[in-house]
Amino acid sequence: MVSSDQRRRQLAREKYVRQQQRREEKRRKDRRRNTVVAAVLAVVLASGGAVYASVALSDGSKKGSDNAAGDTPTTPAPSPSEEESENPEPKLTVDQKASYDMALKTNAGDITIAMDASKTPRTVNSFKHLADKKYFDGSKCHRLTTQNIYVLQCGDPQGTGTGGPGYTIPDENLDALGKAGSDGSVTFPAGTVAMANTGQPGTGGSQFFLVYKDTKLPPTYTPFGKIDAAGLKAVQEVAAAGVEGGAGDGAPKKAVTIEKATVTKK
What we know:
It is a single chain. By secondary structure, this protein is α+β, with helices and mostly antiparallel strands. It has helices spanning 4-34, 121-132, 229-241; strands spanning 42-44, 51-53, 99-106, 109-116, 139-140, 143-145, 151-154, 186-188, 192-195, 208-211, 215-217, 223-227, 249-250, 257-265. It has a single domain (36-68, 91-265), classed as Beta Barrel (Cyclophilin), CATH 2.40.100. It has 3 helices and 14 strands. The strands form 3 sheets. Strands 5-14-3-4-12-9-10-7-6-13 form a 10-stranded antiparallel β-sheet. It has a two-stranded antiparallel ribbon with strand order 1-2. A two-stranded antiparallel sheet has the order 8-11. A hairpin with a 2-residue loop joins strand 3 (99-106) and strand 4. It is globular. Residues 106-263 form the PPIase cyclophilin-type domain.
């Protein structure tokens, strides 16, 4: 007969094995995904044959956390509880009726982003949580695009385009820019700030992009902020310097480092 103490030890071992299996599956998926994150997906639009590039990217976990964004197990597996998760989405603590400013002090100039928590509460909450922890301080804006789409992408402390906070947040406010046209896109006006993702719903992490010129994209990226005039000018100056090596998509030639990020309630 198995004693209660033996049964507890058996259950603990089984739980440990399940956790290890989940973690190993996530690591395998991270490695597979990272082999393709640098590729830019060109999509030919139905009307007029115009081409735009996807902003989708891997927003994986920071410092190898097991909770990689966008992971979907190929076989059913128990979902870890919040207690087991190393980096659960932060609890909602922002005032959902208030507006907030995210101030980015960069070597290229100060950028202030106005955010409305009534429209994107979980996105604003996540940015406040990360900024309060100095998550963005010292990080580089790793990607600039100057052909077909016009954005500067930031928010990865690793500076590779694969880093993230170890949790994901849901899409919000996707209808803010209007209904998609026949080509499946909407216009993200210059000055818009939106979340990057893996190309799948609900896979936002910490990476975001600053639109410096009107850009057509699918309405699948959470628009959560608006850049102030001085900040937009600073981003446009970075864009004018171009991409390293003269390409249309890559690290900005004029390197941009977020020296300090703060989020404050208005």
